[in-house]
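Re: S-adenosylmethionine structure - here you go.
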Amino acid sequence: MKITVLRLGHRFIRDKRISTHIGLVARALGADKLILDAPDDDVKRSVWKVVENWGGEFEICFTDDWKGYIKDFGGERIHLTMYGININEVLDDIKASKKDKLIIIGGEKVPPGVYSLVDRNIAIGNQPHSEVAALAVFLDRLFEGKELNKKFEGKKMIVPKSRGKKVLNER
Ligand code: SAM
């Protein structure tokens, strides 16, 4: 099962950091690909640098037709929104389907058409918070925490320690 994250509403000046964090969370928590709805090379470079150093197969690309991307996606399309059905009510159904998944997250304002284009509108609780948090919780619930043990083969690797820091470089 492949997981693609579609980030809508990216603004060049204000959202570089948050969209980069979406890419980092997506990669670290088991997604395979991030699609941005604006061609921001700074975000792509920042995420790519992490992939180069720390490994994994993660891809990042752009679309200028997010509606077409959602319509044509050959799997389950899940929009994360505080207005949706609480994840606790539908998680078992989502986990039961092994179809590829497109996870859609918004920004300041979500285009109204999104709600009817998708298969599910899912809330990570029905309170407003953040696209980064919503994505992180969704992926962790989907993978039941097992994504945190995923092995990444990169130039750098952390040797986990209870105190201090140890990183193996240029492996
Ligand atoms: N009022 C906006 C809306 O339409 O949901 C909130 C925008 S919020 C700043 C940006 C994004 O964070 C939303 O588009 C959604 O993807 C995600 N988000 C925020 N709270 C959420 C929640 N409780 N459940 C799921 N996603 C959430």
